[in-house]
Specification:
The protein has two domains: 2-73, no CATH class; 89-325, MetI-like fold, CATH 1.10.3720. The chain is mainly α. The chain has 13 helices and no strands. The chain has helices spanning 2-27, 34-39, 45-55, 61-73, 87-122, 127-141, 144-158, 179-185, 189-226, 229-236, 241-278, 284-293, 297-325.
Length: 332
């Protein structure tokens, strides 16, 4: 296990290097440049050239990339061209908001998806099965921005049950940046419930796609395991249906489900851009969208690297969890 973990951690280096090269090159294919975005269209060619030289964008691309990676190795993600604030300071404010939204969406998607998948598998061919899979198909097909606007109109504008946008008021003492945990640590029930109310709509909208995928994968995995010999043996011993499902079927069916959960983490991070924009959520999605529109190369490159790092770490955790779920798996 130790050698496997060390090998996987070493593989993070070329993965992140590859991501950095692709993002570095692709962002420079976007029409325009930071100097024009900063000075606006009324700036003269001489002013644009002067600012590009000051920012270092008149140098060859390999030189720019090496300088950027040199700062990354030192832990310096640079500073925004527009706000003149360091990216590290901005990430400390934005990342917790996105992580809290993504975690809430993943909890909703995993719990609801697994339960719906189990019910569909246990009632195969019934109206419940067809209805669940139809809802899963709708969830995958539904545009996030449209669903978000419809839910805001229904539950915030018409019914006034939930707040339409923003993250809510921060706790008096911000420890982790995750408002739910900070309110729990402060034993503030009202603040905790208010945070959950603000998380409800964006969390559900962001969870729709992974929920549908997890539900379909759970159903498929459950049906495959239900046909195995050891399940028939357990039933022949007179075990109750609930015991057979909980002890024998569910754990063996969880490996592909856990894989899908890990992969859907990437979808959550990318979907957060649209969700945060619709709900005015002050997280990484809104931050990187504004940076793209402003040609803020430093911010975009750093945010994508952070997303890539989170994604590969989640997949590493998923891989390591296989051995816990199935003792037959050995990392030798």
């Amino acid at each position: 296990m130790g050698r496997y973990l060390a090998r996987r951690l070493l593989l993070l280096v070329p993965t992140l290097l590859g991501v950095s090269v692709i993002v570095f090159l692709f962002i420079r294919l976007i029409p325009g440049d930071p100097a024009t975005a900063i000075l606006r269209e009324s700036a003269t060619a001489a002013q644009v050239a002067e600012l590009n030289a000051k920012l270092g964008f008149d140098r060859p691309l390999p030189v720019q990339y090496l300088e950027y990676m040199g700062r990354i190795v030192r832990g310096d993600l640079g500073e925004s061209f527009h706000t003149r604030l360091t990216v590290v300071d901005q990430l400390k404010q934005k990342l917790p908001a996105t992580m809290e939204l993504a975690l809430s969406a993943m909890i909703i998607a995993t719990v609801a998806g697994v339960l719906l998948g189990i019910l569909a598998a246990m009632r195969r061919g019934s109206i419940l099965d067809y209805g669940t899979m139809t809802l899963a198909l709708v969830g995958v097909s539904m545009p996030i921005f449209w669903l978000g606007l419809m839910l805001i109109y229904a539950f915030a504008v018409n019914l006034h049950w939930l707040p339409p946008s923003t993250r809510g008021e921060p706790p008096e003492l911000v420890r982790t940046g995750l408002y739910t945990l900070d309110y729990l640590a402060a034993l503030d029930a009202n603040g905790f419930l208010d945070t959950l109310r603000h998380l409800a709509l964006p969390g559900f909208v962001l969870a729709t796609v992974p929920l549908a995928v997890i539900a379909r994968q759970t159903r498929s995995a459950m049906l495959e395991v239900l046909g195995q010999d050891f399940v028939r043996t357990a039933r022949s011993k007179g075990l109750r249906q609930q015991t057979v499902i909980a002890r024998h079927v569910l754990k063996n069916a969880m490996l592909p489900v856990i894989t899908v959960v890990g992969l859907q983490t990437g979808a959550l991070l990318s979907g957060a851009v649209l969700t945060e924009t619709v709900f005015s959520w002050p997280g990484m999605g809104t931050y990187v969208l504004e940076a793209i529109l402003a040609r803020d190369y430093t911010v975009v490159q750093s945010v994508v690297l952070v997303f890539a790092f989170i994604f590969v770490m989640v997949n590493l955790i998923v891989d390591l969890s296989y051995a816990w779920l199935d003792p037959r798996i050995k990392y030798a």
